[in-house]
Each structure stands twice: as C-alpha cells, then as structure tokens.
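dumping the sequnces here before i forget
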Amino acid sequence: MTDIALIDAAAARLSGHARCTPLLSSPFLDAIAGRQVLVKAECLQHTGSFKFRGAWSALSALPQPALKSGVIAYSSGNHAQGVAMAARAFGAPAVIVMPADAPDVKIETTRALGAEVVLYDRATQDRDAIGTELAQTRGLTLVKPFDDPQVIAGQASVGLELAEQAARSGVTSGEVLVCCGGGGLTSGIALALEARAPSFRVRPVEPEGFDDVARSLRSGRIERNARTSGSICDAIITPQPGDLTFPILHRLCGPGLVVTEEDCLRAMALAFQRLRIVLEPGGAVALAAALFQPDQSDADTLIVTASGGNVTPEVFAQALATGQAASSRSARPLTR
Amino acid sequence: MTDIALIDAAAARLSGHARCTPLLSSPFLDAIAGRQVLVKAECLQHTGSFKFRGAWSALSALPQPALKSGVIAYSSGNHAQGVAMAARAFGAPAVIVMPADAPDVKIETTRALGAEVVLYDRATQDRDAIGTELAQTRGLTLVKPFDDPQVIAGQASVGLELAEQAARSGVTSGEVLVCCGGGGLTSGIALALEARAPSFRVRPVEPEGFDDVARSLRSGRIERNARTSGSICDAIITPQPGDLTFPILHRLCGPGLVVTEEDCLRAMALAFQRLRIVLEPGGAVALAAALFQPDQSDADTLIVTASGGNVTPEVFAQALATGQAASSRSARPLTR
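..and the predicted 3d for all of it:
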C-alpha cells in the first residue's frame, strides 16, 4: 500500500530525474476565477505529463534482473511515453502495446524513445491476452498506469512539491483540483497532502460524460463510464476508478467536479495566453473548473494540476479559436 | 555601470518576486541539434518575458519619493507589461507611451495591469517629445528598455540562474545563445557569466534583416538597422545596440548568429511539441539557431534563452502550420 514512507522513498528516487515543475499564476486568471489560482505545470515534466514520475518510481523500485528482462505497458498515450523514457534511462527493454489506430505521431514518438511498439486490432484482438502472452514468454514486468502502489507513490511527488511551493508563497490551505482519470495522480496527491499539508482538500475533475469518479464518490462504490472513447480529453478517460485508488479517493477527496469540453478548450486558450504553457484537453479540466465554476468552491486559493501537454496542432488550433472571444473579455481591469 | 555587485544586489531584490524559470530539455531537440540543448524558459516569467526582471530591478532601486511620483516607459510590448506589473506591486503610478496603432490586446493588457496608456500618432507626433513633457510636468522617472545599469543588472539574473541550473545538471561550459534586441538581456547574462561561469561563451541571435548587433560586433562599432519594422520578431527589433550595452557585448560576446523568420516559426512549433511552452517569434530566435544552424558552433552543449511568449493566436497558428512537416521528421530514433 502507498503511504507517506513509500511516497518519500519514491520522491528520493525521483530527485534529480523528474523536474520540479513550476507553480505558475497570472493576475488575469485570478480575476476570472475571483480568487487566487496557482497552476502546477506538469505539462513541463519529461515527456510532457506527470506520468513520467509514476513510471520512474515503478522502474526504480524493480530489482536489477527484472529491469534487465524488461517492462511492458498498455497505453497509446502519456503512460507509454513515461514508461519508454524511464526504461531508456535504466537500460531496460520496454514493450508498449498500442491499438493499431493510435495516431502515427504517438507511435513514432514512443518508438523514438526506444520502446518496441506492438500493435493490435481493437476490433478483433484482445489487448490483455496479447500483453499477458508477451509478458510470460519474455519475462516482462507489467507497469500499470495507475493501480500500482509505486506508481501512485511517484505521482504523489506532485503533491509534496506543490505543498512546499505553495507554502513559500504563503499559501497553506485551499482546494487542490486534479485532472482525474484512473485516480493515480489524484490519490497520490491526496496521500501526500494528508501527511504534509492536511489543510488542503483534494477534488478530482473530469470531463462531462466520463465522470465515473465523481459518481463513485457520491455513491460510495466504484461506478463505470458508459463509454470509454469519444472525448477530446482522451488522456484521462478510463472505464472506472482503480481498486487501489478508489478507497483512497473515497477517504480523502471530493466532491468531484465535471467540466464541458468547450470549457477545456477555453482553459487551454487562457493557459496559452496568460501562462504561456501548452495543455492538452485532459490536462486542462482542472483549470477549466477553477476558472469557470466559481460557485463550486468557497476556498480563497485553488491549486490546479495542469497534468499534460501532449496535444496535436489541430486540437490546439481549435482551442485557440474557441478561446479568442473569452481571452479578449478577460482583459478587464484587475482588482487585486 | 553594471558589475557583479550590482547584479547580485538586483538578484537579491528580485528574489521571491521574479520566478526562477526552469531549464528545459528534450531528447528530440538534442537529436535535431546533434548536441545537448537546454532551454531557459523565460516565457514563463511574470508577464511572459524576461522584461519583468529589468523593470523590477529598476523600480526597486528608486527612492520612495520617485516611486510615489511614478514612472514612464515607451513600449508597445513586453517592456510595457514588465514596467506596468512591477509598478503595480510597488504602488507606483505608471504611464506607458504607445503608438495608437499598437494591437488592441497589448493596450488592454497594459491597462488591465493598472498602467495609464498614452497613445500617440506615429505619423504626426514625436514620442520622445510627448514622453519628456509628461515626465517633466508630472515628475515621472523614465525606465529605459535596455540602456540602464539597473535594467541590465535585472536581466543579468537570468545568467546567474542558468549557470546554477546548468551546473546542477553537470554542465559547466558551452555556448549561451541569447535572443538579442537592444542587448540588455545579452549583456546582462554575459556579465553574470564572466563573473560566475566564465567557461560559457555568450552569442547574440537576431532575425535576418535586423542584425545590427552581429554587424556591430564584426565592425567593432555601433551599426544601425536599415528598417525597424516589418519583422514577426517585433519584440527584439531595435534601431541599434545601446550605448551602455554595446561595449559589454563587444568585450564579452560573439560572433552573432542570424536566423530566418521561417526557422523561428519552426522553432516555435518544436517548442510547442517537445517542451510544451509558448514562444513568440522574437523569443524563439536562439532556439532556431541552436536547432537549425549546427555548423555555427562546436560546443557540446548549447543553452538557449527562450525570452518571451507573448504571441497572438494567429501568429502561433502560423507557426504550428509551418512546423508540422518538420516535427514529423524529428520523430526519428534518438541516439543519446
């Protein structure tokens, strides 16, 4: 189980390897939200998302023979890149199982990071069967995307960092809004803050139509999404919260927040204009909630995770177009 | 005159107010450049450019009565925003003199930061005459954009930071490529490195057609640009190097590098894709030189300043379009 000792140990292994990402802010964003907004820019992490932390934490906890045999992951996105880059640093072979219809650029990037990409047909083949056979025949260790104690401990290092950074700015309480898929980042941050900065409350944020965590927190048991595709927030779409993450989320987090895709795009445009960072839609849900749902919180300060920035030029251009009206409205006089 | 004592004093005044911006990297950029490339992301500084540092340094060096009377600056861009935001923090009135045809969003942003914007007609009015009269009648202190010892000292803090950050990554020598307009940032970094990390060589980078500094370094005397408008790199276009900055540049820096506008746009697209930061064209010239002019240096490591990120959605979309072919080519296997 992940606890503060496991988190501290993971943070020590990550030190000097993961970036301590900056906590950004803009008076223009504060004016829109009506309160202080601090943005933990994990899009600036290696491979462009927080996933590098969990992957590094998991690989650095493996014994040398397991590293030598190699690792395997199922992912078409940020987890794949995190595992590939960490494996490369440890000299471990990495096999990434991806659907054959994944975007070319993701396949190429993962290969360029040194991983072997095994493609499967989503319509006719069973990913888990392919992965299990590969793992057994080649002695590969599976690195799960979120439901693994060492992965959760790695993501938790985001919570340790943001608590220290906020304290240096004089902020010791408030709400921490976290972009939430399977709950690895959200549960990790919640455990870190429970131990080190318990005056913060962690709230998961999800896109409309894929709010399994918000519903699970309300009902008190794991609820599933009706669909697992069809969202621009693809990076944080999972069938349901994890067996390890949900009990942590249930004990420490909530209530969940749910945002529209249009608000994600507007948040991406404001992050472009006011913070000069690149966010992907799934990495912008927490900022969208902070900016456009002021009635959902009474905290003086909101800390939001900007969890990833791997976005195509096409989707980014769509965000800029969506945001242009909103960004001109936001240039009103500041009151702070 | 700016020396290391003035720089250390400015850095101390900036501490806790300017952001220590991250030094970013990507194996994909290293592969393109054929060497290690480290990017000092000053686009993440307050107001989106390094100019905040110089403005804060200058204002924090003023006596209280001068602050109370207020400050004035001539700028339509990053210097205006830096002065406006610093003045707001010090409670100092700020007057910014801008051409009436400056983009609305820049005028609105400067006003939103609390400054009084005075517009003038470039065709019929003399900016300096307007500014001088305002300064005299209202007792305002002029904050020059680069040719001021305290402004240079403030920009020099970028050099102190990047030397420390590079050393923590084991890098203690190489070339530092700096986006260069009037030379405030370039000369400041050069002075800081001369004192603290003299194994680094500083090289100014300018856009084609506006290479006054490169030509001045070659001839040994101040040379002018034929034009001072008509570049997408507007943030770093000045008539000529400054009277204070040029002797420093001449003693410590060079040779200058010159890049095309198309390479700036390609560099912006790669910074978007690989570093997830937003650069403006003038803030991307150093990265463009590092990536696309490998024959111009024999250093193992290039540190580039990414000096600003205030760019319109239209120009950014143009950069993404320019870069799409280049970015797919860059996803080749990495050798490091």
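The mean pLDDT of chain A is 95.
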